[in-house]
Design brief:
338 residues, eight-stranded parallel barrel, four-stranded antiparallel β-sheet
Length: 338
């Protein structure tokens, strides 16, 4: 339920209304726009009398949100959410580029890539310490040691770090990680999502391989409902009948999520394509569609990578792409303004 207030609503009446609503065991979220103030009510609102609230002097209208996702809903929160990660903004017209290797393999490797992507203009450094693999015989990541190396690389370069958590038991290792990633396979690990709702860190939530938009937003709702409003949605390709590419990148997620939700949306062209030569065109398509960012795999020697080498850009290719995307992003903003 949302309560839309009239312009210049009396502050004392507003506070009285909020206190009354909270006595009904419902949480109130106030969204202050340039022209309108909205109170979003989270909880069981079935027993709240809409007609009674409509009669209040400061109330313009009251509406029930029909969709099952509430806190993630744009009707609840009309203004775009902008997430600040150590000075790097995700949203608000910025293009946040997260880059680094699929998996951390050695100190030399992560430091080499970190310095290179920093020089090319990346906003954040990614690197996998815990790797969910289809085969139990594949490289599973450096785990604890990988986290330490990633943090070391982040401190040396000044880049915020992004890495994936796979289980609640690992969270104590993520105390210094700037952005915690939830992979596609864990999108509906609800116990993990609830626990992430209690931490004060941005969460990069990837869409599941076969998840609908609503299912993704309901997963985000678990994090938001438990107190953490720093959620970044990520499209990484979905499974379709097409088998030429690794997955099928759903570009429509960008405008759809901009319509349905206030949360920022980024695109993972590396996992979507599965082939390095497709990363650049998919990145440009995402920028044209209005993405808030990209997460791109970069390796110093893709041919010898222990994980996802075929989809990883060389450091030189990434540098070229960043120059291209800077120009493309400026052009996309000009077109949007027109």
């Amino acid at each position: 339920m949302v309560i839309i207030l009239k312009d210049n609503a009396d502050p004392r009446q507003l506070e009285a209304l909020k206190k009354w609503v909270e006595t009904q065991n419902v949480h109130v979220h106030q969204s202050q726009g340039s022209h309108q103030t909205i109170l979003g009510l989270v909880g069981d609102t079935v027993h709240i009398d809409i007609d009674m609230i409509k009669q209040l002097e400061i109330v313009e209208d009251v509406r029930r949100i029909q969709e099952p996702f509430k806190s993630a809903n744009r009707k609840f929160h009309p203004l775009d959410t902008v997430i600040d990660v150590n000075g790097h903004l995700v949203g608000d017209g910025n293009l946040c580029v997260i880059a680094g290797p699929c998996s951390i393999e050695s100190e030399t490797q992560i430091m080499t890539v970190a310095r290179s992507v920093k020089k090319s203009g990346a906003s954040m450094l990614r690197g996998g310490a815990f790797k969910p693999r289809t085969s139990p015989y594949s490289f599973q990541g450096m785990r604890d040691e990988g986290i330490k190396l990633l943090l070391q690389a982040g401190k040396e370069t000044g880049l915020p770090v992004v890495t994936e958590v796979m289980d609640i038991s690992q969270l104590n290792l993520f105390a210094e990680v700037d952005v915690i990633q939830v992979g596609a396979r864990n999108m509906q690990n609800f116990e993990l999502l609830k626990e992430l709702g209690h931490c004060n860190k941005p969460i990069l939530l990837k869409r599941g391989l076969c998840a609908t938009f609503q299912e993704l937003l309901m997963s985000a709702e678990y994090i938001l409902a438990n107190g953490n409003d720093k959620v970044i949605l990520c499209e990484r390709g979905i499974r379709t009948f097409e088998d030429y590419t690794r997955n099928t990148l759903d570009i429509s997620m960008i405008p759809a999520m901009k319509e349905l939700s206030h949360l920022p949306v980024i695109i993972d062209p590396s996992h979507a394509a599965g082939m390095a030569r497709f990363v650049a065109p998919l990145s440009r398509a995402a920028v044209a569609a209005g993405t808030d960012g990209l997460i791109i795999e970069v390796h110093n020697d893709p041919a010898r990578a222990r994980c996802d080498g075929p989809q990883s850009l060389t450091m030189e290719a990434f540098d070229h792409l960043m120059k291209d995307l800077t120009r493309f992003h400026e052009l996309a903003k000009e077109c949007k303004m027109k």
